Fold:
Amino acid sequence: MMLDQAGKYDVSLETRPAHVVEAVRQFTPDAIVLDFNMPGKNGAEVAREIWKDELLHETAILFFCGLVPPTDPRMHEIARGPFRFLSKMIAPKDLVAAVDEMVSASAKSGIASAS
Structure:
């Protein structure tokens, strides 16, 4: 909602972890904001599925974490690829700034969100 309200990006939302990869294939975003704690799969599992896809393997992912501290060393073992972590407790402007950084090198302006 924060990114959609910022009005800077085309945003697509998928709330079912099992459907995220297909949604990303269809939407082809520059970056993905991915919740870490989801029913059925965690964000790292979904990210690995995304990065296994030949067309999506370089897609940047921002893990939006509420319960998992981004400094937890286990996160870097289970989530490999172009990613970063951000707490759900941040101000909306900080989320937008983080996404801006992730897509600044790309000409597209799509963001996918999964939670």
